[in-house]
Amino acid sequence: MPNQKILYITTEMYPYQEDTNMAAVVNKMALKMHNEGNDVRVFMPRFGQISERKFQLHEVIRLSGMNIIINDLDQPLIIKVASLPGERLQVYFIDNEEYFKRKQYYFDDEGNPFEDNDERAIFFARGVIETIKKLNWVPDVIHLNGWMSSFVPIYLKTYYESDTYFKDAKIVLSLYNEKDAPLAGNIDEKLKFDNISGLKALDNPSVKTFVIESMDYVNMVVKGDEFLDEDLDKAFNETSTSKSEYLDVDSINQLY
C-alpha cells in the first residue's frame, strides 16, 4: 500500500549503530517502505558516537533554534540531517550539547545509568514532535522503536492532546529487549511541569516501566524481538491494545 507517510522514531538504526537487532530491523523496515513508494522519514538522537563527518550530517538551520523547556530549563534544539548512505532516505537527528554530546548511550564507563536519562528522553520526544510540526509533514503511521521513543505517545495523548496535528496518525510500538535502568526519582516533577501526572510508571520509574506504560497510548504493539524478556512478554500478553507477534521485515507492511 504505497503513498503512505511513515515516520520511524528510533534510538538505533544501522549503520549509525551496528550489531543490534533493533538497528538492523529499523534500517530494513524504513528502506523497504521507502522503496515501495512511501514517503518515509526517520528521527533518532544524535548520540556522540555518531560521526558527523563519516555520515555527512549537517544542521538544518530552519528547523533548529527552538528551545524546549524541561523542568523550567531552556534547552536549545538542534536538528541535523543526513541521507542514509547510498540511499535517498532522509534521517533527522535530534541534537543538544547537554544531552547527546557524550560518547556513551545510556550508561557511563562504570556501567551506571546517566542521571539525566529521563530528561534526554523527554527532550527527544518533544523535539521530534515539534520538528515534525515545523516540517508541516503529517504522518499516517508513526512507528516507535527504542525506549526513548515510548515517551512520544505519552506526550501526544497528554501534553499535546488538544493539538489536532497528529489526530489521524496511527501509532505502532515495537518491543525490544533493552537493558533496564531506573529513571530519576523526580521525573514526576518534570512531567508535572508539562501537566502530565497519574502514570503507573511513576510508581517505579524505569526504562522498562515507561515502555510498558506506552502500550496504553498506541494503536498497535508488535514484538520487535522474537522472544521478549519475562516482564515485557507478560505486559504484551496482558495489554488490551491490538497486538502482533514478531513479524519478519518482509511482512511489516501488513501492520500498516
Automatic annotation (TrEMBL):
Keyword annotations from UniProtKB, A to Z: Glycosyltransferase, Transferase
EC class name: transferase
Superkingdom of origin: Bacteria
InterPro entries tied to this protein: Starch_synth_cat_dom
Domain Starch synthase catalytic, chain residue ranges per copy: 5-179
EC number: 2.4.1.21
GO MF term (any one): alpha-1,4-glucan glucosyltransferase (ADP-glucose donor) activity
Segments crossing the lipid bilayer: none
PANTHER family named in the record: ALPHA AMYLASE DOMAIN-CONTAINING PROTEIN, GRANULE-BOUND STARCH SYNTHASE 1, CHLOROPLASTIC/AMYLOPLASTIC
Protein name: starch synthase
Species lineage: Bacteria, Pseudomonadati, Bacteroidota, Flavobacteriia, Flavobacteriales
